[in-house]
Amino acid sequence: MPPLDFLTLGYLGGLLAAALPGGWGGAALALAAALLLALGAGAAWRGQRNIPRLGRAALPLLLASAGALAAAALPAFHRWMVPSHHLLRNLPPESVNLIGHLAQPPERNEGRGGRRPRLYVEVERLVVRGVEVPARGTARITFSSPVPASLEVGDRLLIRRVRLGPPRRYQNPDGFDYREFLRLLGVHATGFAHPQAITRLAPREEAAWRRSLFRLRDRMSAHLRAALPEDAAGLLEEMSIGVREDLDPEIRAAFRLTGTAHLLAISGMNVAFVAAFFYFFLRRLFRWLPPGGFPIWPVVLTPEKAASLAVIPIVVLFTLLSGARVSIVRAAIMAVAYLTARVLERQGGALHSVLLAALVILLLEPGFLWDAGFQLSFVAVTAIILWAQRGGPGPPPEGRPEGLARWRRWFWELAWVQLVVSAAVAPLTAWHFQEAQAIGLLFNLVMIPIASVAMPLAFFAALAGALLPPGWGLLLAPADGALALLARAMILLTRWGAALPGGAWTLAPPSRGTVAAFFLFFLMALGSRRAAWRRAGWIGAAAAILWIMIPLPPMAPSASGRTTLLLPDAGRADVFFLRLPDGRGIAVDGGEARVAFDTWGNVVAPLLRRMGERSWETLFAFAEGTASSAQRE
Length: 633
Known about the structure:
seven-stranded mixed beta sheet
């Protein structure tokens, strides 16, 4: 195990220990770091006294203690580094004039009256009561009507009469932390303004490379929209370049209900698809070249090494074009580290690449540890690696299988990998989303092979269509036709699966102890060398999953002798709950929220499940727009 991995594990353990409930996190972290440091120093001292086995444990213990100490210090250091004039620390209570640069193209957003654009502005100065003061941070400004189409990334803007505030959404107990979510995305304040309040002070003043990148993505998106049907183009835009605005919400809901929504979110799987597609394509292309065409300095290149080297900038370009989210950055770091090791003929393990990526990301921002995407991504990849290191479903057959046996072996391995990944992420899915999909395993077996071809092919066709001169797009007609068929197949499959009764159900969020017990059993099953321990681990993990996933029947609440009123924060939706003295419950939906947002499914129902309120006898719904979702929940 490389020494850096012990540092990473100590750092991860320290961040987890710091989050212990009851105020014991800091004390437990300090105690663990001191204990590891003492053990490491003792092991080093005893190792010098002719106990070599104990001496070899000194370096891992010292590195783990260093990681734990870094976990105690770095979050405080990050908070200390935020300047006093940053938007996180200082927001004026009144309306201000804002001066800054446009960070990305205007974003379309479904609002009460349809499309409401948003601008992301890197703030430089605020004008408060006629006084200009410096400011730092990124503000997301929402407008009531379309903004000028001529705005470009890097424009210096003045936006008048903006009332800035911290991001707020639904202030329910233990609810989704919207402010922290936006902070991890780089948004530190939100506000509203009218489009007529925008003045462009200087066009294209900075961020030339970012502007060129967004222009390339716009041309790629335009090629997909011109060459494919509307629904297919919207699906492949989101899968290949991260453009989310054009996908039909009904298709998005169908992917969620069939357990295949991870194919829409740009993540490590998409990076793997792109890297594998271009690697095998370029390797085949380079094998046609004469051996004398490859350089021998500074490294001896072969077709395999040349393909690995050429894929690195493609992975970096894909990461930048798709938004450089944390899951993509993690996969990109892993891919670049692995490909570089292949070029330099260095030994490197896949698990080491995962830990290296985690260390880099969490050193830059420790808060990502609690992000749902970060957790799901790293847990899934780690499960696949540990499963592969254990030999997979069984020993490989002697010789290379051919024909039908080869496809049968491939399908069998894919099924086992999907089963292991589904089991690994099931507790996290229940914790974050309170949802389970019974048909997810079956549909992933069909959808992942289709997506592994459609997604990188869409990226290739869109990139080629954006770079080719006008009139040369006919060369891409075969690829566009294949993409239309593949995208339509995915849409039809998910729509059919979403219509199946009982395909998905909601869950109460599991306790922290249940989730921790599952991962202990799961690591025992995949990491233990003894067969008996592995069997015990699988049994324990299966029991934990069944405890989490099997929905318990609602229990009739006992009579309390008093009336209880529950008023959740549901935004513009007027919802309240009344528990009568005899235990009967009445739910009332008294107003319609004119937004394309399922308030009941995303806010109200998760709150009730967290509070243990699962039995309501009567529903009064006075709004046609939300009556169906209220009745379903």
